[in-house]
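Anyone opening a protein record will find just a pair of labelled lines. A complete record is shown below as an example.
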Amino acid sequence: MVFLLSLIAVAANATTLRSKCDLSLTSRLKNSIFHRMQLYVTGRGLEDYERISKKNLLKTLDALPGGARWTDLGAGEAKALNDYDKRRKTLNLPPLKLAAVVLHRTLGTKIKNLWAQESPVQFYSGKPFEDYAPQELPLSDIITDFMGAIHYSEHADQVLNQALRNLKKGGLFITNASLATEIRDESGKIIGPHEWAARGKGIVIEPSDWYVLKVRKLSDTAEVPALRLTKISEPSPFAPPMREYTIEKVNGR
């Protein structure tokens, strides 16, 4: 009888422990989902960008002369831009010109009002980045896109080519290289974003961590090869869609 009661007690303890573990896992999952949602929707601070860029961003920005322009695509609430403006002041560096491109006009207006009294950021909103005419956006020395246009658009190639048009000669585009889920060349072979971009003209792919894509514009005719979207997942509020692309054949080749 004592042995039976002991078994019942062990089973009860195991059930309680499992329940606590389930609650803990559920809590962690919720926290993880909330963090991802905050990161992709409104987080987007300078620390997030520095981590995503594998510590490539700050040293690049700090080296820019005063008056140079940094444009951030999918800037959310422009937290990274405003954080960096404060950093320049702390380091006694001359200020940069700062621009944010966000998709939704209502969000752009809300953010503009939010920072109106203290922010040097110039906002552009109301349509996809790739739909702007070149003259609608200022030429920039650096354009970043860590959680924005190139990750959500069905036309990653058009986004990068638009960025190249809006960079000054010698300017730099930086993104995390998960910009497309999968890219296949003309033969069907899977290649990475670096290899795809390197097939472009008037650009150079700068050395970096495999997770980071840095494209330097060398000429006014800079462009990357066209891509054809073959598959895209349903959109999620927490992360960009999964996409598959094939490099477009030129003249049937």
Remarks:
- The helical segments are 2-43, 46-52, 57-62, 79-90, 105-115, 149-152, 156-165, 193-198.
- The two ends are 82 Å apart (CA to CA).
- The chain has one domain: 44-247.
- The longest strand covers residues 167-176.
